[in-house]
Amino acid sequence: LRVVAVHPNSPAKDAGLRAGDALTQINGKAAFEYDSWDLRPLFRVAGRKITVVRVRDEKETEVSFVLRRLI
User: Fold this and answer.
1) What pTM, to 2 d.p., does this model score?
2) 64: closest CA among 32, 16, 20?
């Protein structure tokens, strides 16, 4: 799963996610097991902690952030 864009001033941006990052895990589940219908509700609950494993420059890093309302 590839990050296409990260909203400015978002928890994901603050955690260091960038466009182009590859996500291999989301909350302990392999990213390829999700489809867009699974991801929408997962990322819409303010206060939910999200932990992802990202790959950038061939290095895996675990990153966590807590969702908040942007608007």
Assistant:
1) 0.86
2) 16
